[in-house]
Amino acid sequence: EALKLACEDIRAYYLEAVTAQPGHTSVEERDNWFWNETTAGKALWALKSICQASDDSMMRAMGNYVLVPRAQIEARDEDLLAADAARLEAWHRGMDNNYKRGG
Predict the structure, then answer these.
(1) How far apart (Å, rounded) are the C-alpha atoms in residues 35 and 72?
(2) Can you tell me whether residue 29 is helix, strand or coil?
(3) Helix crossing, 27-37 with 39-52: angle to 10°?
(4) Distance between CA atoms of residues 35 and 48, nearest Å
(5) Residue ranges of the domains in the chain?
(6) What tens digit of pLDDT does each residue of 23-54 get?
């Protein structure tokens, strides 16, 4: 529970700071900024992986369900799938070009 609260405090600190800045950003934009562009967000992603690899079932649950919001996990999964699809498409183009050259 203490780990969860500490992580929530870190996230709240960052989000309160960015909210105080001039201009208007949506909740989604702020969340994306925190999870993808800040050192704290990157640290929590790393902590998620560490917890998931733990022998302790409570730590695994923290890593699987608590530390990173589901929307961020799904967005990252979509980004990875899109990147994989782009790499596969580039590979196919290369193979097609190689075939056309008689290679």
Answers:
(1) 7
(2) helix
(3) 70
(4) 12
(5) 1-68, 70-103
(6) 888 988 999 999 999 999 999 999 999 999 99
